[in-house]
Amino acid sequence: MSKRVALVTGGMGGLGTAICKALAQSGHTVVANCLPGFPPQHEWLARHRAEGFAFHIAEGDVADFDACAGMVEKIESETGPVDVLVNNAGITRDGAFRKMDRAQWDAVLATNLDSVFNVTRQVLDGMAERGWGRVINISSVNGVKGQFGQANYAAAKAGILGFTRSIAQEVAKKGVTVNAIAPGYVATEMVMAIKQEVRDSIIATIPAGRMGTPEEIGGLCAYLASDMAGYMTGATLNINGGLHMY
Hints:
The protein is α/β, with parallel strands linked by helices. The chain has helices at about 15-25, 40-50, 65-80, 100-130, 140-145, 150-170, 190, 195-205, 215-225; strands at about 5-10, 30-35, 55-60, 80-85, 135-140, 175-185, 235-240. Helices cover about 45% and strands about 15% of the residues.
């Protein structure tokens, strides 16, 4: 059997890269999505090919439905049908709600939530027709519990959870699973660039006494993408070091 094709949106960020690596290490052909003309894409591709990862790149604005249709059509013609989709793309535009403008709201909802519809809609029917598929949606602990200054982000990430449970019911009998991962604080390069004292104050609130690693999130994605996870669907997997338990 040929390798299954996995598409990771926002695949070149710290978390996205770890997810791409974990899926590749578990035997998938991995396609990393990025915005059209994303400047570091060729350097990212070359660096990881030097490490032994034969990643592919798919340009496309995940906030644009038509762009997603074109992106997936190109992937399917050049690489193969998408068997595993990881909806990982996301941005933040933080601010207290009373100061939040419409542009901050729209940008986050479009990239973090509309994108999940835009890309999943392109691949779900094919998965169901072939009788096998995996959709993995990256939410957030703040989508579960809320967070001051992140009304837009928390709303989008909470919406992902409702989307996950609903779509899971529609395709469960077709051999397709749909699950969500809700990470807590993860030590990506962006987070590690925060001042040490701020990071220490965050870690002090986490029962495990540390942040998660991108590789831990990647490993969970690899499990959900496997045959062994075929009986798990509609679930939210919380991976936050005990920051929020329920």
